[in-house]
Amino acid sequence: MSENLEEFATPGNFSYATEYAHDAGRGLREETVRYISKVKNEPRWLLNFRLRALKIFEAMPIPPWIPVDLAPLQFDQIRYYLAKDQEPKRRWEDVPDEVKATFDRLGVPENERKFLAGVEAQFDSEMAYASLRQSLAEKGVIFVNSTEGLLQHESIFRPHFGKVVPPADNKFSALNSAVFSGGSFIYIPKGAKLEQPLQAYFRINAEQFGQFERTLIIVDEDAEVTYLEGCTAPRFESSTLHAAVVELIAMPRAKVQYITVQNWSSNVYNLVTKRGTARESAEIRWIDCNIGSRLTMKYPCVVLAGTRARGEMVSISVAHHGQYQDTGAKMIHNASHTSSHIMAKSISIQDGVAAYRGTTRVAKSAKNCKNYTRCDALMIHPESVSKTSPTLDVNGNLAQVQHEATVSRVSDEQIRYLRQRGLGESQAMGLLVNGFLNELLREFPMEYGVELKRLMEMEMEQR
User: Fold this and answer.
1) In this structure, what DSSP letter does residue 107 have?
2) Is the dihedral of CA 40, 46, 50, 51 positive or negative?
């Protein structure tokens, strides 16, 4: 990896003064939704979809089980849409200077040259840059932002949009449905197997802002894709909201791997809904790393809808001082002979809270289903907090469901032993943490695994 990409492994605490061509103002009203839809030149059906979602959002209360007070968000002060341009640039040289400087620091152009089949970079509300290798476009692969997807590929986009995660799923999926902008639309045609990953970067640059990207990935029969997602934001005194929605559809025998590395600053409230549907013999694999944010609530889900479908979740979360990581996974077995696997590791530093919240459900009609769940927690300080809230709802016959959990604390003896061998305290702590995570770090692409190890070392230096 380049030196530039090391910026991605830091808090990303930088921003650039930016003039926006489109600004919906502060607060959420019907006029806000209409402004967004008009600027994006959307069809009437989509405006109606947004307006219905707004009513759902307004009618739904804040869920009582959210573990921290959301009052600092001040929904009436958030800016819900800010954009420089509507059309993403296809050439890096054409990207505006301040946007280019941001993504240069995050290593976007070098990553694209090195190992990506295609890349998108979102700056606040809209994609600023997008490219796809010509050879893949010629094979029928589609990789565009959500606006281009619905306007240029409506026959593929519309039948699946909002079906995996409907607006009424929860309050924040309703909010996203009302004001969404940006995000990726990907279609992989039958039999196409992408050897290199596609990637999107999501950058929040503005203060007191809400980012609401919406991603829809459709992988047709016997096709395969890996999608990488990176998220950063600078630290401001005011709170920032990130409420994304991701919908995955794996057709029969398709394979989808969705990898997220988030490194939000500690003023971000990260409230996202991610769900995929796996048809017969299909596989959906989430790999998730959650670092930073004031609050993260994220439980990627796989609905196993076809016989012999498989779902997998690999999760790493780190909660530092004043942070709450409420993460986990959901595996819904609606078909027979389906299998799922959840591996989650969390680290609590200082008074950080790391919670695992997971659900495994087997429908009454599903037979011979298997699930294995393991969640391990490491607490660094006496005041560190770890919580585990698994839910097992098994109704089908001949199901095998297992859940294991371990909690451990770094001891003074371990640190003393390593310091006697010439390591500094933060180095010793970093070594222990990387040892704890090593099994899961191997699941990330090599470029990311190296950076994540470095990121963990930086987190330990802050302790």
Assistant:
1) T
2) positive
**Concatenated DSSP letters of 232-252:** E----SS-EEE--EEEEEE-T
Distance CA 131, CA 148 (A): 13
265, 13 Cβ separation under 8 angstroms: yes
Look at 313 and 64; give whichever has higher pLDDT: 313
Q: Please tell me the distance from the alpha carbon of residue 125 to that of residue 170, in angstroms, as a whole number.
A: 22
Non-local (6+) Cβ contacts of 267 within 8 A are 233, 235, 236, 237, 238, 239, 240, 294
Q: How many CB atoms lie within 10 A of CB 412?
A: 7
CA distances from 162 to 62, 157, 239, 301 (A): 21, 10, 28, 15
Q: What is the average pLDDT score of the chain? A: 86
Beta bridge partners of residue 218, listed in sequence order: 187, 249
What tokens does 227 get?
A: 């999608």
> Nearest to residue 436, comparing CAs of 407, 399, 463?
407
| Residue 315, helix vs strand vs coil | strand
Instruction: Round to the nearest angstrom and report the end-to-end CA distance of the chain.
Output: 26
Q: Sign of the CA dihedral 55, 58, 63, 66?
A: positive
* CA proximity to 306, closest of 332, 284, 335, 326: 335
Domain boundaries, the chain: 4-298, 300-409
pTM, two decimals, is 0.89
Backbone angles phi, psi at 124, to 5 degrees: 60, -115
339-348 and 310-319 beta bridge pairing:
parallel
Greatest Cα-to-Cα distance within the chain, rounded to the nearest angstrom = 69
| Element containing residue 36 per DSSP (H, E) | helix 30-39
Q: What is the DSSP string of 271-334?
A: E-EEEEEE-TT-EEEEEEEEEE-SEEEE--EEEE-STT-EEEEEEEEEE-TT-EEEE--EEEE-
Q: Are residues 107 and 99 in contact, defined by beta-carbon separation less than 8 angstroms?
A: no
pLDDT digits (tens, 9 = 90+) for 287-333: 998 988 999 999 999 999 999 999 999 999 999 899 999 999 999 99
CA dihedral for 173, 120, 231, 83, sign (positive or negative) = negative
